[in-house]
Amino acid sequence: MALTLHDQVASLRRGDHVCMLYTSLDEQMTAVAPYLHVGLAQDELCLFVGDDTARAMLARRLTMLGVDVAAATASGRLRMLDPKPVYLANGAFEPADTLAALRGLLAEASAGGFSGVRTAGDMSWVLHGPPGSERVIDYEEGVNALLAQSPFLGLCQYDRSRFGAGLMREVLRTHPIAVLGDKVCSNPYFEPPHIREADDQGARLDWMIAQLEQTRAVELGLQELNGQLESMAYVASHDLQEPIRMVKMHLDLIERHGARLDERGRGWLDQARRSATRLGELVSGILEATLTQREAQSADVALADLVAEALEDLAPAMRESAAEIVVGDLPTVRCDRALFVRLFRNLIGNAIKFRRGPPRISVDATSTADRHVIAVRDDGIGIPTAWVPQLFGMFKRLHARDAYPGHGIGLATCRRIVELHHGRIWVESRDGEGSTFFVALPT
User: Fold this and answer.
1) Do residues 183 and 66 both lie within one domain?
2) Sorting pLDDT into bands at 50, 70 and 90, what band is 1?
């Protein structure tokens, strides 16, 4: 089961030094907002350092997650500061001064009764080249030393589309954990201080080889475990179909020969049939989800053709709901045809299902030099902001079954399909105002 980014940042612990290499403000805040949201929920003192635009976007994202930003700021639990007073208090960057300020923040948090400290600093100020900025890696190494003495959580963000490759390499070498897109990763390129400072090249080589061997052993173990789990899920869900069919058949026979059933007995029979139907749908959903675990069989495909195929499957639901669906210009991408038909069928099917009246749905895309972003928009019931972080988890139902049918498998399947294609899926929505699901794919 794929974990949401909110789940992943919630698993971070004090003492973790995390770097995020992002390419857009949206991608940055998709990680920073839940990271700080978790800290606020745990009564930590939370600090974000960034420019005006980043601070404004963060405030909006935290509000979407249910945080009262004004109250959190007024109480001192949440602090959003400009980089200058934090990193350039004396007009130049001095790592020792910034580390001393961090120690002061830790002492203040302890005296104030906070459970801990969680910081998030956007390092884009380095790009302006203020005096001392060339020592930013010295600062990152100092943070590692400080974390060993006084555990807190630190998330340093670097725009990899603007920083040079050399600095990005050094950033990775000084952070044991990295955030890339919607993944929190153990960083195999991190070099502990005793290795970075070692003069013995043989010792450094031995350490690197040991890291490779350890990583490969973990990968092989996970591959074997995943293969076993996928086989078990497929066999179990496939083999359960037949007894479910038999249960339904015998329920039909009981009804056909049940002239002596009274009203109560017929009620029990109807309830049993509904339960068997739900069980059959659940097993079918699990079977469908297991099929997405295979490696994608990619070819160049026009997305418009795949949307058209998905709409054919959804024709009965479209007629019943009087849905109006507008499909814009869509690119040709390299993808697994069957999986992407399923992706569009799930996203458009949800837009039809969660409607307020006759649904109005659009499917369109924008493209840049490095990615395509497909958007599926609707004017339906929307999604409460508090529910968004768990939306793509397996078996995460947001509504009662009698209100909307389903088992909480569809969006988890969508996420898995997109991840198989090295992409990212997310949603923007407000309760009662419709939803837009975005799928970003590399070109």
Assistant:
1) yes
2) very low
In-domain check, residue 203? no
Banded pLDDT at 79 (limits 50, 70, 90): very high
Do 260 and 305 reside in the same domain of the chain? no
Q: Where are the beta strands (DSSP E) in 272-352?
A: 298-302, 324-327, 332-336
Of 395, 31, 330, the residue nearest 177 (C-alpha): 31
The DSSP call for residue 294 is S
**What is the structure's pLDDT at 433?**
85
Terminus-to-terminus CA distance in the chain, angstroms? 27
* Helix (H), strand (E) at residue 361: strand 360-367
**Token pair listed for 326:** 């507008």
Domain housing 351: 298-442
| Domain end residue (candidates: 259, 275, 291) | 291
Instruction: State how far the alpha carbon of 37 is from the alpha carbons of 6, 51, 65, 163, 435, in Å.
Output: 9, 19, 7, 28, 22
Neighbours of 264 (CB within 10 A): 8
pLDDT digits (tens, 9 = 90+) for 14-57: 889 999 999 999 989 999 999 999 999 999 999 999 999 999 99
For the stretch 155-188, pLDDT in tens is: 999 999 999 999 999 999 899 999 988 788 888 8
Assign 296 to helix, strand or coil: coil
CA–CA gap between residue 19 and residue 99 (Å, rounded): 17
Q: Is 375 left (phi over 0), alpha (psi -120 to 50) or beta?
A: beta
Contact by Cβ (8 Å): 396, 370: no
How far, in Å, are 87, 203, 286, 419 from residue 293 at the CA level?
Answer: 46, 40, 11, 10
What is this structure's pTM? 0.56
d(CA 19, CA 248): 54
pLDDT tens figures, 331-375: 999 998 888 998 999 999 989 988 888 999 999 999 988 889 999
**Is the CB of residue 341 less than 8 Å from the CB of residue 296?**
no
Place of tokens 């580390």: 99
